[in-house]
Amino acid sequence: MSVLQTPIDYLKGVGPNRADLLKKELGIFTYQDLINFFPNRYLDKTRYYKINQLQRNAAEVQIIGKIVHLKMVEQKRGKRLVATFQDETGTMELVWFRGQKWIKDSIKLNVPYVIFGKCNWFNGFSMPHPELELLSEHKASIRSAMQAIYPSTEKLNNKGISNKTKIKLLQTLFLETSGKFQETLSEDILSSLQLITKSEALFNIHFPKNAELLAKAKFRLKFEELFYIQLQLIIKNISRKHKIKGFPFDQVGELFNEFYNNHLPFDLTNAQKRVIKEIRNDLGSNAQMNRLLQGDVGSGKTIVALMSVLLAIDNDFQACLMAPTEILATQHFNGISELVKKLNINVKLLTGSTKTAERKIIHQELKEGSLQLLIGTHAVLEDKVQFNNLGLAIIDEQHRFGVAQRSKLWKKNTFPPHILVMTATPIPRTLAMSLYGDLDISVIDELPPGRKAIKTVHRYDSNRLKVFAFMRDEIKKGRQIYIVYPLIQESEQLDYKDLMDGFESISRDFPKPDYQISIVHGKMKPADKEYEMQRFVKGETQIMVATTVIEVGVNVPNASVMIIESAERFGLSQLHQLRGRVGRGAEQSYCILMTSHKLSSDAKTRLETMVRTNDGFELAEVDLKLRGPGDIMGTQQSGILNLKIADLVKDNDILKLARNYAFKVLKEDPSLALDKNKIINYTYQQIGKHKNIWNYIS
Ligand code: ADP
Ligand code: MG
C-alpha cells in the first residue's frame, strides 16, 4: 500500500480529535485526500494592510502592529479576552472567546506582531481569533510571497484548525513523503504541452514559489482533471457504439418517402435536413443511437421526430414519443395525427387520464405490434406498457426527465431501442461536452423562414395600465395573449392566490362579452385544463391566464403576446421557454416582462439579457455564469460537475484542449495499449476503481 493511503490519523500533528474534524468537515480521510485538498485562493504575503485601509466585508488581511492593552471582559457566558491593537494609522480590537488564559499569558505587549484574519465591523474594526506571529519570526518564516488560503468551516475555525494549522499539516506531509508523487500524465503530453510534473504541481499549488509556477501548477492540475473526464466520456461513447448493438433500420421506406415527397407542410430548413441525415446515419448503422437534439424553441424539432418515427415504422419497428406534461403530449398527438392522417398509421395517446378501456386496447395493440406509434407522458414507462418490438424512443424536453427514467426505456426490448432526446433548453457547448460526452449531439441552429424576432420589453407593475392598453390594441387586431404567473412549489398556496387575484383584475379590465378569458393552472383536472386549452387554441378566448403549466411546447401560432408576471422570479431558461410560446406565426410578436421595482442584481441581469437577445445559446451562457453548472443540470449529474480545481465556465479553453488531447490519444491507441500510454492507462483504471479522479495518485 502506498504511503498516501495512510489514514490521516497517523500524520504528525493530527490527534484523534483533529482527525475526526478533518474527516467530518472536509472529507479528508487519508494523506492523499489532504494533498488533494486545494487552496481556493492565495494571500500576497508581501502585502500588509494599515488599519485605516481596512474595508468592511474584505477577505483575510495581515497587519503589522503592537498590542498595547489586554483585558478580560465578562459576558453572558464566560469571558472574552480583548486586546487593543495599534499601528501608526489607528486602533482596532482583537478578540478571543476561547483559550483566553493561555493566550493572555503568551502575548507580549508593545512588540511588533503580524496578525492575520478576517475583520468584523461594529463601531470599529475587530478581528476574532487572529493568527498571531511575532514580526521577527514572521520575517524568517516567509518562503514564498504567496500563501495558500484553504476552504474552511465555522466548526474548524472554532476548534482551532486554522489556515496555519492546515499549512503545517501539509508541510509535514510533504516532509514525510519527501514530496515525490507518481506521475499521472504521459511523457508525450507533458512535453507537448510543456507541463510541469505532478510532484512540482502539487508542491506549487500548496506552496507556490512564485506566481509563474503557481499558474503552471494550476494549469497542469486543471488539464489533468478535465483530460481524464473527457477520456472517460469518450471511451464510454466508443464502447457503447461497439458493444451495444442496435437495430439497423436499413431501409428508407415507403412511409418516409411518401411523407417527404407528398405531405410535408413546408420546406425543411437546412438545419432540419442536416439533422435528419445525422439521425438516418445513426439508425442505419449497427449501433444503438443515443443522440441529443438541441434546438431553440420553435426551431421545428417535432417534424424531425416524426420523420425518425417513420423510419422506424418503415423497418417494422414501433416507436414512442414521450413528453413531460399531459398538455404537451396531447398537443403532440393532435399535431402528429394531423400530419400523418393520409399515411394510414396507427397512433395512440397514453397519459395519466387515459380511460381504462382505452388503456386496455393500447396495451393489447402494443403487444400485438399493430400500434405503431405511442405518444404519451411518463405513463409510457410503466411496466405494464409492453411493446412488441420497440425500435425508437423519443423524449421531448429532456430536462424534465431524469437519467433513471431514460434508462427504463432501454429495457423495453431485447436490445435497447434507439434513443433521441430533444431539448429546447440549449446547453452551452462546454457543458454539453462534459455532461453529454457520451451522447452524440445534433443542433438545429436555424429557425424556419419568415419568423419575425420577438420584441421583448421590461415594464414595471406601475405601468400596468399602458400594458393593458397595448393588449386591447393587439386583441383588436385579432391576436391572442398569454399572461403567465410564476408557480413555485413551496409556496403554491400563495402563488395560486396571485394567479386568482390577477385573473380577477384582468376579468374586470377585459369584461365579457367583448373579451373571453381562459384560465389554466395545476390544480385543475386534466379534462378541464384540456377544455380551456382547446378554447384558446380554437381562438374562442383571447386571453390565456396560466401558471407555468403552459411552459413547455404549446403551439398556438395566433398568440402574439406573452406577458410574464413577476418575471424576476423566473430563471432565464424558463423565461426563454415561455417567450418561445409566441412568435410562431407570421405576425410581429411581443414578450412583456412585468416586475416590481425591487430587483436583485442577478434578476436585473436576467431581464436585461432577455431584452437584449433571442438567442437561446447566448442565454444559456449567461445562465451558466449566473447560476453555475450544478444548478442548471440538477443534482443527477453532479458527479461529473464536482470538479475539484477546474471550472467549466472559466476554464473553457483548457476543457477544449483536454478534449482534443483525449481524442488524439484514443484515436492513435483506442485501447491505451501502447507503451507510451501506460501511465494514462494505469491512471484511467484507477479512476474506474475509485470513481473520483483525485483518488488515484499513489
Ligand atoms: P420546437 O422545436 O419548439 O418543438 P415545433 O416543432 O413545435 O418547434 O415547430 C414550431 C412551429 O414551426 C410549428 O408550427 C411547425 O409547424 C413550424 N415549422 C417547423 N419547421 C418548419 C419549417 N421548416 N418551415 C416552416 N415552419 C416550420
Ligand atoms: Mg417542441
The first-to-last residue Cα distance is 9 Å
Strand numbers in spatial order across the main sheet: 6-7-4-3-2-5-8
What share of residues is helical? 40-55%
List cofactors, ions and other ligands.
Answer: adenosine-5'-diphosphate, magnesium ion
Beta-strand segment tally? 22
Q: Percent of residues in beta strands?
A: 15-25%
Q: What is the structural class?
A: alpha/beta
Please describe the biggest sheet, giving its number of strands, its sense, and whether it closes into a barrel. 7 strands, mixed
Q: What is the gyration radius calculated from CA atoms?
A: 31 Å
Global shape:
globular
- DSSP helical segment count: 25
Low-confidence stretches: 632-640
Mean pLDDT: 87
Brief account:
With 698 residues, this protein is of the alpha/beta class.
Q: How would you portray this structure in words?
A:
With 698 residues, the chain is an alpha/beta fold. The strands form four sheets. A seven-stranded mixed beta sheet has the order 6-7-4-3-2-5-8. A seven-stranded parallel beta sheet has the order 12-13-11-14-15-10-16, sandwiched between helices. The longest helix has 33 residues. The N and C termini lie close together (9 Å). The structure holds adenosine-5'-diphosphate and magnesium ion (MG). The site of magnesium ion (MG) has 4 residues, from helix 12. The site of adenosine-5'-diphosphate has 18 residues, from helix 12.
